[in-house]
Design brief:
Blueprint (H helix, E strand, L loop, with lengths): L1 H23 L15 E5 L3 E5 L8 E6 L3 E8 L2 E5 L5 E5 L3 E4 L7 E7 L6 H6 L1 H7 L7 E8 L9 E8 L2 H7 L8 E3 L1 H23 L15 E8 L5 E9 L2 E11 L6 E4 L3 H7 L1 E3 L14 H7 L4
Parallel strand pairs: 8-9, 10-12
Antiparallel strand pairs: 1-4, 1-7, 2-3, 4-5, 5-6, 9-10, 11-16, 12-13, 13-14, 14-15
């Protein structure tokens, strides 16, 4: 039994290695600087707007603004908004007297790479990219790579691979992670929408095949249990962290393990120290980077990837 398990494990490792090497040759998406959501703006609609100290008409008047004055919205509370002028003056204004201008989200640029996929099947994958773009709208420009690969010689049971590549930088991660997440714990929440979008893309491809039956070899049509989905965090150094997950009802849930391909390492698989934290809190707690005898563990590569101190 153990011999059989080790054989399957080795075959799966070989598959991951080949997929890692293929991805390492792909173009690395250009990183996008993370930041806060662009501010909501407003324009004064009346000839004289009273700006008050508190969100009530009985509050003291601080100053007035003329028609067409542009301001920044700091806070919204019922029928009142807290605003800031270009000169830095702040106060509360009656919301119906302002035209609120909210920032618009942008669709990401997604490059689709098809590997060993026949021309007849390709349009099914390219057509579903619109679903992925819709679910990954952002206030900031994004350039992502989507890789779809078919390997009929795979012995892992997964003959189709879908991978969404996301540019990763330590600086952006530190800005996006929760304040309660310490060293040695990966905050998966900033990446959850990408996993959800990828799984919805996979389902959209299945739906496209169901609505438009393809007449051709059966092995060219992916089945639900025949697709491995990877969310790949890609650094400028070409180090890659592979995350996987699944749908749990309407929600996307990360698996309690990950893979990493880093310089000087073969692809490594690391399991979360507390699987329940991944499922319930989107927090991947890493094992210790050193063993009891002082040797580096496989988790040390992930510590290095995120720049965790140890």
């Amino acid at each position: 039994m153990s011999s059989m398990f080790s054989t399957v494990s080795r075959r799966f490792s070989v598959l991951v290695l080949l997929f890692c090497l293929f991805l390492s040759l792909a173009v690395v998406p250009r990183p996008v600087k993370a930041g806060v959501v662009p501010p909501t703006r407003a324009i004064v609609k009346v000839s004289g707007l009273n700006v008050r100290k508190a969100p009530t008409k009985r509050s003291r008047r601080l100053f007035g603004l003329s028609r067409h004055t542009r301001v920044e919205v700091l806070e919204e509370r019922g029928s009142w908004v807290k605003i800031r002028t270009r000169k830095g003056r702040e106060g509360w204004a009656f919301r119906p007297l302002l035209k609120i201008i909210r920032p618009k989200k942008r669709l990401p640029e997604i490059s689709l790479e098809l590997n060993n996929v026949s021309p007849e099947v390709g349009p099914y994958f390219s057509g579903a990219v619109a679903v992925l773009k819709k679910n990954l709208q952002s206030y900031f420009p994004q350039r992502l790579n989507l890789v779809v690969s078919r390997d009929l010689n795979s012995s892992s049971g997964k003959h189709w691979l879908m991978a969404l590549e996301i540019p990763f930088s330590r600086e952006d991660y530190r800005e996006l992670k929760g304040d309660d997440v310490g060293e040695g714990t990966i905050d998966l929440l900033p990446f959850l929408k990408y996993l959800h979008g990828l799984l919805l893309y996979r389902d959209a491809v299945f739906g496209s095949f169901a609505r438009n039956p393809y007449i051709g070899p059966a092995e060219e049509i992916p089945a639900a249990g025949d697709v491995a989905c990877y969310l790949n965090l890609v650094k400028d150094s070409h180090d890659i962290l592979f995350l996987t997950g699944k749908m749990d009802g309407p929600f996307a849930v990360f698996d309690d393990y990950l893979f990493i391909k880093a310089a000087g390492y073969r692809p490594l698989k690391i399991k979360a120290l507390l699987p329940g934290c991944v499922r319930d809190f989107n927090k991947f707690i890493l094992p210790e980077p050193y063993s009891y005898d002082g040797r580096r563990t496989t988790a040390a590569a992930v510590y290095d990837f995120f720049g965790f101190s140890y």
